[in-house]
Amino acid sequence: SGPQDGGASSGGGDGKAAKGGKLTVLNSEAQSDFDPARLYTSGGGNIPSLVFRTLTTRNRAAGAAGTKVVPDLATGLGTPSKNATVWTYTLKKGLKFEDGSAITSADIKYGVERSFAAELSGGAPYLRDWLIGGDTYQGPYKSGKGKKTLDSIETPDDRTIVFKLKKPVGDFPYLATQTQFAPVPRDKDTGTTYEKHPISSGPYEVVKNTNDGERLQLKRNTHWSQKVDDQRKAYPDTIDVRSGLDPAVINQRLSTSSGDDTAAITTDTNLGPAELAQIGQDKALKSRVGIGHFGYTDYLAFNPKVKPFDRPGVRRAISYAIGRSSVINAVGGSSLAEPATTFLPNQKAFGYTPYDHFPAGGNGNPAKAKEELRKAGYPDGLTVTLTHSTAEGEMGPKVAAAVQQSLAKAGITVKLKGLETNAYNEKRWDTDDTPGFFLSRWGADWPAGYPFLAPIFDGRQIVKDGANFNHAQLDDPAVNKEIDEISGLTDLDAAAERWGALDKKIGERALTVPLFHPVYQRLVGKNIQHVVISDWTGVLDISQVAVK
Amino acid sequence: MAVQDVLAPGAGDPPAPGPAAGARGVWRRLRTRPSAVVAGAVLAALLLAALAAPLLTAVSGQDPYTYHDELVNSASGGAPHGAFGGISGTHWLGVEPGTGRDLFARLVYGARVSLLVAAGALLLQVLIGVSVGLAAALGNRWADQVLSRITDVMVALPMLVLAIALTTVVPEDFPRPLLLILVMGALNWGGTSRLVRAQTLTLRRLDFVAAARLGGSGPLRVVRREMLPSLAAPVITHAAILLPSNIVLEASLSFLGIGVKPPTPAWGQMLSTATTWFRADPMYVLLPSGLLFVTVLAFTVLGDAVRTALDPREASRLRVGTRKEKTRD
Amino acid sequence: MTPHQPTDPAAGTAEPLVEVRGLTVDFPMGEETVRAVDDLSFRLTAGQALGIVGESGSGKSTVAAALLGLHRGTGAHLTGTVRVGGIDVATAPVRELRRLRGGIAAMVFQDPLSSLDPYLPIGDQIAEVHRIHTPQVSRRDARQRAITVLDRVGIPDAARRSRSRPHEFSGGMRQRALIAMALACAPRVLVADEPTTALDVTVQAQILDLLHDLRAETGMGLVLVSHDLGVVASSVEDMLVMRGGRAVERGPVGTVLKFPRQPYTRELLAAVPRVEARRAPMAAASALSSASTGDVLLEAAEVRREFGRRKDRTVAVDGVSLTVARGETLGIVGESGSGKTTLGRMLVRLLEPSGGSVRYRGHELTGVHSDLQMVFQDPVSSLNPRRGIGESVADPLRAAGNLTDMEITRRARELLERVGLDPRWYHRYPHEFSGGQRQRVGIARALAPGPKLIVCDEPVSALDVSTQAQVLSLLAELQRDLGLALVLIAHDLAVVRQASDRVAVMRQGTVVEEGPADTVYDAPDNPYTKALLAAVPVLDPAEAALRREARRNGGGLLRASAG
Amino acid sequence: MTERFTGLRFAAKRLVGAVTVLLVLSVVLYALFYLVPGDPAQLACGERCNPAQVAQVRGQLGLDEPAYAQYLHFLQGVFAGRDYSTGTSLQHCAAPCLGLSHQNDQQVTALIVAGLPATTSLAIGALVVWLALGVGTGLLSALRRGGVTERVLTVLTLAGTGTPVFILGLLLLMAVCAYLRWLPFPSYVPLSQDPEQWAWNMLLPWLTLGLFESAKYARLTRSATLEVLAEDHIRTFRAYGVSERALVTRHALRGALPPVIALSALDLGQVMGGAMLTEQLFGLPGLGRLLVDSVRSVDLPVVVGVVLVIGTAVVIANAVADVLYALADRRVVLS
Ligand SMILES: Nc1ncnc2c1ncn2[C@@H]1O[C@H](COP(=O)(O)OP(=O)(O)OP(=O)(O)O)[C@@H](O)[C@H]1O
Ligand SMILES: Nc1ncnc2c1ncn2[C@@H]1O[C@H](COP(=O)(O)OP(=O)(O)OP(=O)(O)O)[C@@H](O)[C@H]1O
Ligand SMILES: [Mg+2]
Ligand SMILES: [Mg+2]
């Protein structure tokens, strides 16, 4: 009995949402990156999306509807050229920065350009990979070598901006949701210190930013207008973001919900197993829990270059042997994770196509696993090493121990090898040194198949001397070709269907053992209304929240 | 090791003709204090339980590693089914939330690791502390300055941070308990060394040290024969305070993710994962923290008792005017 | 033993100030109990002075403490009655007892340093005590009172010094401060437990004079506890000799000292070394024979020793030259801090001289040498409390490393026997021995390497007279049998005279006078030596009174040395 | 006069020693963290940086230089300050410049200055709590030695120490803020902003850390007091009728304080950098957390900077303790 789907859209969501009031945000991580060039996720996550508007944005709606991409600064999702290599956007009229000056296409171009500067590292790799000249461009600052402007972005007039790509990209509207596409006025750019007070194009502007984003006080941006922004609701007058809190304390505060905490939410802290157990049957408390799904898959990764994982039989045996119940219990039980048999997340937007090539049930299928082992030449079982992170969490020791336990039943002895987070990441990303068998996970940059499958299975995305995510180092021309073809499609629904088929096909090779898709459960304060949780982010959308 | 040191007289072995006569006196004085006897018994029981962990779990029929998915409520965060954290005839102290592993087995096995780590680290702390303290007290002014300043910094450096750094530098297949022992031992000897330095400076002025030198003893011989025996008493009492703090430290290191490796159980590591559970499954928190508390209490009581038993002033408590008076004795 | 009541003219009429009747004190020690005081009775009327003498452990201090009820709560078991100022010490409620303590009877303890609070100014301590007994007095007046009494006991510049802490005072000043504390409460009787044992003769003389004057002035009673017969002789009228907790003899001082009736008292008197007596001829003859050959064993030339650096530098020994011949005894006397110990330690090279040289048999010494040994002043700290005494004695033999284990143990047992200890005590620990016995262990250890010379640093100052005599005769005997040379350091002039062929008198790091013992003592040349000799307490009360008078009239030098 | 000079010379000597130790310490840290896994450039750049970008960032951070050169630059910054570019302009980081954070380009000195108020607030308040609680219970149990009061106190203070600080703090938080609701959940308010709110919000952190440390002090005070009570001068005052309470509060306490002071100074230093668990639990933006975060992200300049600052604090605290010690106990000569 899994949790209800993300349609559970509102906590205290009855009553009419009203403007005004102060919203408190209790977070554990500081917003230490607050420069649009540095942010990674679409819209830079929750808080940045209150300050940065982008060409397009995610649809602020609950559940599956929320996986759609919609226009934001632009009037539409962009006009592709015939082969989807040139994308043209037109800006809405009457767009203004917080100082009242107009937002022009040049500001957007500059925002994209400065994201190439080494000083402002971070962000997703797509712009470099896709824009013509993106691989060599070093940004508009003095320190960068070569030309200071990027010619593949054109601004024929103040409201038009054109992007020229190396190859067909059907997903470009999704990419345009990222904060690199937020406007930055060149004369207000202060380089690395810009993040102290980025110039707002959204409904709120920064009043005070203390301790490198540890405390952010935001107030309404009077130059923002609901008329030119149909996505953000901006009910509260002020927003106070306090971070650096212990997750246990955040949840406790939200559940106690007294004083300022009655109007508090968190944008980064999930309920843990113990807290869920405690909430248990408490109806009042339960009604304040928002449940969401984000496109994420935790899986066991194989590196077939390492023996004995070069034998498909061994990989299949492990796929059969895995007991997902134990693994799911290790991360907090069925209300915090759903068993995964597909690599793609179980959402339509990704092209989810159900399959279970190696049915293991909840507790594994040791008999089948043993049979596979025998066929692979290991009639007496075998001993393997599972590499994992020592940090608590989904790639941490608990999950590793659960895997160890369930494989033991099939005669597979698992030795655990825990590495400290940095060492672990370095190792699993290192093409020459990738362990044979380890815990890994992948999340979507946007709800579509491309960013989910390409980095993992595209042979041309195997990265030497850097962070490689194609752990299996699969380089199959057929797969590569299919990826190219789908990614050129501008019909996103048609593309989704083909991504699902591709996933199912790759799944047969048992290069990964999908374990589970995490479920997010988060508390809000008593007086919080209008909780909207989309399947794009899986967590409540701060721009929709109202305070009673 | 230190555990044995403290308990040695309790083993009842006949005292050697040498210094044991003193130890025997201490033991005699200890024996007359009920609190010391109880504390000693508790520690002995713990030690025994740790040593006999496989035996005990054989009796209970559970091992510390097997998962029991059926015993936990997966839909509600993995809390154990049943009252008091799933206590039952088969699982005497209930099971671990999330995994359903037997808590009794994990606690007794955890005692092994925790006591081993704490005692091992203690040994190292005492070794380094005594050597550095002695060297500082007996070396020239330069050596003293250098060692004392290093000790200052050691005492006060954010130990957890260095611990994090060190544990990440060391190859991961290095045995964790040993690593913990090394890290805790290598970083937390400042207090001991200060104590030893101060005591040695006092001792050094005593005439029997001069007499030994006159008798032709070299510096090492003087240290070994004249000083170490006198240092033993304060160091032992100090150790009684250090040991429990080592257990707590193990917990803190686990909390920061650098404790012993799973699935090996250890008290500190159990505690660090248990914190959030104290409302949903209080037993899960109470058991390891209760045990820890009992251990700390027992060590402190015993340490106090040993100290008073070793203190000649306490021994001659009849001395005039040193006691507060009651109306009539 | 028939208790002899001190003959006191006022005894019949006045209620006695102190009345002790059938006092018995038992200390329960594990299974057995130690009877420290056994059926003791005495009384003291106002203005009277009683001296209690006896060897170490005879129960003197226990009696003194009983007078103030200090055994309460310690577990000691008391029977009999003790009444002080009309208060029954055993039954009085705590409040009453507090009034008694200080208010009626005040106590002056032996060790002046440890008896004062090291953290508080002396004046405050006195004021605090004063206010307890006169609560109506304001803080300020109490301080004033403290200054007055400090002034009274002869602390110069009392107003300023009342703000000093104890460590800034010299030993004699501290003892005065303790007496001042007693005075501040205007008690009717002063109980002084060995008030001068830790002090130099000159300072001792001043303190005793002070007590005498105060008594004359205020008419308070005095109970003076001491093992030193000379101290008692010069300060009290009546005395009581204790042994094993019992009173052996009592009576007026003059009578008891002149005509002791009990053998024990006679023994005690005989053991007291007399500064006016020449050395026993037998011992002297044997030593002189080799000394006269002029065979120089050890020679110190212009040795200096400084401590501390720059500002806080002290010169402990300032250019001392002396020689020790084979088999002779050189005595070194001088008051506390004069550099005796420092010099002695340099002679055996435990300390490195900052200047000058020490030559042994013509060769410059560069480190410790097994031929040169030392016996230390303090029998407590000179033996390792955690090692058996046999092991301590065997240690030098083991360090030498040329004997087997068997031989070492045998030799160590022989040595123990040689110094008069039972070899079966080999495995015993120092705390199981008396001071005298421990000093013997120290001597045995010094003998172990087969030395040619032993420096004895105050070998008997911590011991009572009878033990003192035993240890001194042991040293003499060893010297005779083994042909040892001795350097005997002591502040007790009589002890030095008894045991030395030659004497050096030290003051402030230098030797002010040196020569054959009899010459120095009988015809002192240096005024300082003269003053020292004049300060030695004598056993004859009449003579003591004369000397006191002489000191009062012409003691300029002494005053100077007390500052 | 003399005393003051002795004090000055003592301070000067201490300073030289301290600077040397700190230098050695920084070298050790550099060496240690050089070996720590995790590439700061990669971490700063983010997961999906391509190798060229990582290389660019590495150059930007100066990480492409050999280790010794990096260290020398660091030293240069400490003694002479240095300039750095924000991309759009050049900024100066005045000496003592501890460099720039690899992770967010902030000046380390600024980060430390930002973290100091919370950390010092925590440390000093906790110090007061543990002194009050520790010395108080220590004295009480010395007075009531052997009695029920003493046993109860012992168990209580040990309960504080025997519980890891993260559990102790959480329990306090639950009890006070969630169950009893005596206080709202604390969130840090700087002293400069609102002293009253500051105090209210620091109350629980102070209590947590203070409780955790107090047992040590209770035991120390108790044993030191008993030790002083066994000394001869106590006998003197008892023999003059001084009451038991006055003996303890006036005479014994004074003697028991010096070791308490000495230990406090050390612990104060320890708390400056070691209270990260408390800081984390209560969301205090202090040095401890800064340190842990930067250790995790191999942000060497921040790690070295914070440790150096803490080290300096420790040295100062030690020196102050020595002086206090000498003041409390005039017999002790500075050496
Ligand atoms: N507190 C005590 N506990 C046990 N025995 C004690 C205690 N105090 C004294 N005694 C014993 O009582 C006897 C008398 O001791 P006391 O101190 O009165 O002797 P004293 O005559 O003052 O000796 P000294 O000249 O050495 O001071 C000794 O045998 C001593 O060992
Ligand atoms: N280790 C030391 N450090 C500093 N000063 C010292 C040291 N040892 C001795 N002194 C000083 O040197 C002087 C001589 O001391 P010494 O101990 O030699 O005197 P003494 O004649 O043996 O006195 P006493 O009769 O008290 O034993 C004293 O002023 C003393 O304070
Ligand atoms: Mg006595
Ligand atoms: Mg001396």
From TrEMBL, chain B:
SUPFAM superfamilies: MetI-like (SSF161098)
Keyword annotations of the record: Cell membrane, Membrane, Transmembrane, Transmembrane helix, Transport
Domain ABC transmembrane type-1: 111-303
Transmembrane segments: 36-56, 113-138, 150-171, 177-196, 283-303
GO biological process per UniProt: transmembrane transport
Main location: membrane
UniProt cross-references to InterPro entries, sorted A to Z: BP-dependent_transpt_permease, MetI-like, MetI-like_sf, OppC_N
Keyword Membrane: yes
GO cellular component: plasma membrane
A Pfam short name: OppC_N
Membrane topology recorded in Swiss-Prot or TrEMBL: Multi-pass membrane protein
Subcellular location: Cell membrane
Protein family (similarity comment): Belongs to the binding-protein-dependent transport system permease family.
Protein name: ABC transporter permease
Species the sequence originates in: Streptomyces malaysiensis subsp. samsunensis
Taxonomic classification: Bacteria, Bacillati, Actinomycetota, Actinomycetes, Kitasatosporales
From TrEMBL, chain C:
Alphabetized GO MF terms: ATP binding; ATP hydrolysis activity
PROSITE patterns: ABC_TRANSPORTER_1, ABC_TRANSPORTER_2
Keyword entries, A-Z: ATP-binding, Nucleotide-binding, Transport
Entry-linked SUPFAM superfamilies: P-loop containing nucleoside triphosphate hydrolases
Tagged with keyword ATP-binding: yes
InterPro entries on file: AAA+_ATPase, ABC_transp_ATP-bind, ABC_transporter-like_ATP-bd, ABC_transporter-like_CS, Oligopep_ABC_C, P-loop_NTPase
SMART domains noted in UniProt: AAA
GO biological process entries: peptide transport; transmembrane transport
Keyword hit for Nucleotide-binding: yes
UniProt domain ABC transporter: residue ranges: 20-269, 298-533
Family: Belongs to the ABC transporter superfamily.
Protein name: ABC transporter ATP-binding protein
UniProt source species: Streptomyces malaysiensis subsp. samsunensis
From TrEMBL, chain D:
Localisation per UniProt entry: Cell membrane
Membrane topology: Multi-pass membrane protein
A Pfam family this chain is assigned to: BPD_transp_1
Alphabetical GO biological process terms: transmembrane transport
Broad class of the protein's primary localization: membrane
Sequence intervals crossing the membrane: 12-33, 122-143, 155-182, 198-215, 302-328
Occurrences of domain ABC transmembrane type-1 (ranges): 116-325
UniProtKB keywords: Cell membrane, Membrane, Transmembrane, Transmembrane helix, Transport
Cited SUPFAM superfamilies: MetI-like
GO cellular component term, pick one: plasma membrane
Keyword Transmembrane appears in the UniProt entry: yes
Family stated for the protein in its record: Belongs to the binding-protein-dependent transport system permease family.
Name of the protein: ABC transporter permease
Organism of provenance: Streptomyces malaysiensis subsp. samsunensis
